[in-house]
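Ticket #4471: complex job returned nothing on first submit. Input attached below:
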Amino acid sequence: MAVAEPRTTTRRRTPRVDAIRNREAIVEAAAEVLAEQGAAVDVREIARRSGVGMGTLYRHFPKKEDLVHTVLRRDFMTWAESARQAAIDAEDPWAALTTFYQQALTGYARHRAIMENLALTLAEPDLEGIHQLRLVIEQLCARACATGLLRPGVTTDDLLLLLVSLGHAVQITDECRPRMWNRLLHISLDGLRADHREPLPCDSTVAGVSAP
Amino acid sequence: MAVAEPRTTTRRRTPRVDAIRNREAIVEAAAEVLAEQGAAVDVREIARRSGVGMGTLYRHFPKKEDLVHTVLRRDFMTWAESARQAAIDAEDPWAALTTFYQQALTGYARHRAIMENLALTLAEPDLEGIHQLRLVIEQLCARACATGLLRPGVTTDDLLLLLVSLGHAVQITDECRPRMWNRLLHISLDGLRADHREPLPCDSTVAGVSAP
Amino acid sequence: MAVAEPRTTTRRRTPRVDAIRNREAIVEAAAEVLAEQGAAVDVREIARRSGVGMGTLYRHFPKKEDLVHTVLRRDFMTWAESARQAAIDAEDPWAALTTFYQQALTGYARHRAIMENLALTLAEPDLEGIHQLRLVIEQLCARACATGLLRPGVTTDDLLLLLVSLGHAVQITDECRPRMWNRLLHISLDGLRADHREPLPCDSTVAGVSAP
Amino acid sequence: MAVAEPRTTTRRRTPRVDAIRNREAIVEAAAEVLAEQGAAVDVREIARRSGVGMGTLYRHFPKKEDLVHTVLRRDFMTWAESARQAAIDAEDPWAALTTFYQQALTGYARHRAIMENLALTLAEPDLEGIHQLRLVIEQLCARACATGLLRPGVTTDDLLLLLVSLGHAVQITDECRPRMWNRLLHISLDGLRADHREPLPCDSTVAGVSAP
DNA sequence: CATGAATGAGCGTTCATTCAT
DNA sequence: GATGAATGAACGCTCATTCAT
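Support reply: We reran it on our side without changes. The output follows.
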């Protein structure tokens, strides 16, 4: 249907530029919306904000889930990167840990879809972005542990779960009771310090209590 | 309307037996489903599981919201009651607090709709059941504080937020990493002990960090 | 289940009294509601107002339609009767006619279900009550015709249709423009007077005009 | 967003052809169904008849009400237009008036939803289409009045109410007694002529008669 | 390739009618 | 008989996904 002949060399480049621009617009818009409203948003809203049609959106991301994952991957990456940077800049390992949580909770914890997924991800850590974040935390953990500031036995998973946990607290209180989560963070960080005698339970210390 | 002499007692009881059974079946099924899937479930699913028709369900609960509230009220009540009991049975105030969290997290934290609502409720505590729970926590807080075991400055809201926060951790880890939250609980409880020098921040101690 | 023996003679009378009372209560309540809201009302509303259960209502009137018909029959009867009386009391045939419309439009035209059905009934005059009304109109028509006051060729059906037609006008204007229909009545009655030269069309005088 | 050189005209036309066809199919089907059954129809029925899915229907008309209004607006417009044309073509003001009613009652009076709304509209004239119709009637009224053919004191509202009133008569008799309303129209028109001595009542001439 | 219109299963809710008590 | 709880088909509407242009 197209005339095909004249544009020989750049033939495949032109559409691609457009396609890439579109893809980026979609991801950008989606990131915005997902941060604001979580993964339950109407796909139409994303298409609207990115200025592309539904078809384009679905060409790039055949399932809503694909788009969500892409955005999350990206945002987890960025997050991990900025976290790593902040950690490097920090004076000492403990400050690095503290700063990490502060930044995370002040920033990304407001990203609804990020938090929704950070949660899911402990179960099935399929998202590579999250892996980056995990690596950062691993480093923070290792360093704080090595200097003897971190309570012995605390694992990366503990710190990750604490992040998810406090992240949720942020989401809940952010609008009605801003920074109330800050106190919880202090408490938790104090609980993470080395000056506690008792070792942490090995996941199943306490006797069972019946379910509802 | 009729003069109706002797049958006073058994007058209106008979037909209700069935209705009550149904109502209970509905609430029971709803509680189950709400615990499993949260408040977003299809009403038809509840009807199906309880073995009643849609009409019956809507006769008892004119709006889906009514049913949800009823279930939540009930479950919050039960929860508060069992929490209170456990607290009373505890040897000392600190054990009471510990046990409370243990029980709460082992039991009700798995209830999706409960947690959803517990979250919402920090903003607008409309459900009366939740108030009961809050009262229990208030007592636990007061007692633990009075004995000097609880870190000064810790409020009921802090404990409540910790509950929500850890509750979320439970929901996340329960299936894939059972009792991993247990370690987080220990950490948090240690952070709550009185032997910490620094006072808690008054909600906005730390300098702002920019959002993503 | 009942003790069966002692009440021999009056055995079948007692329940009937109750049944009749119930039936009457139902009809009464239904009449009220139907007049207010038309035949589209929820059957529950009728049951509620009459103080009986749904079962009772449906025992007496297996279909909603049955109840509606019963009420309409009754109300058409009453209407016919009061119309006849008013006609008899009138000084002259023309006054009788005028009074009839006045009374009808001031009174029964506000009865929503009556008007709904008066309409339907020109098609299939199944309701006996309406027949009574029709007879009254027939008399009015005959008398007014005989005295030469009524325009020749005007039939009972014409007068009936005028009634339906104006009745509808009443329903529409009653709340927002009370008695606006009164002017229409005057116009129509003047058009019914004998002093018009042209005969009425035989149902199909005018050339067809295309439908929408 | 692209620079898009030569294809200016055919740019956005192509995809719309289908959409417009669908939209028209929906409106057409809706008009049909609304005319037949009134505004209470099931939206699915409209979708079915127009051959589109529910989604398509709701894309074009987000609320059922929107569709209904669109249809009514359209049909009132058409009606007003054809009425105006017929009035213009008429030999004299009285013929114009006569023709108007003839045409209205032969055509649009069969449209159930139109009549339902024409009725409602005397109370709250919200639909713009209806306003057009009103204007036409106003002109007819003014012209007939000016030539001294119309009975003094007759207002646009009177003529409108007569229209609604007779329209209802049409709906009732159309199927079982076609054109029976024609006689009523003659009567009413005769009543509207100037050769009546008595002035019309100012809305509340006649003494009240008690309600049923 | 982009577009956005089309699809249809599914949701919360209502109401005439039936049936166990 | 009387009661009112139970039934389920239908209604207005939404949204992830597909498909013609």
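Chains C and A do not touch (no CB pair under 8 Å). Closing as resolved unless it happens again.
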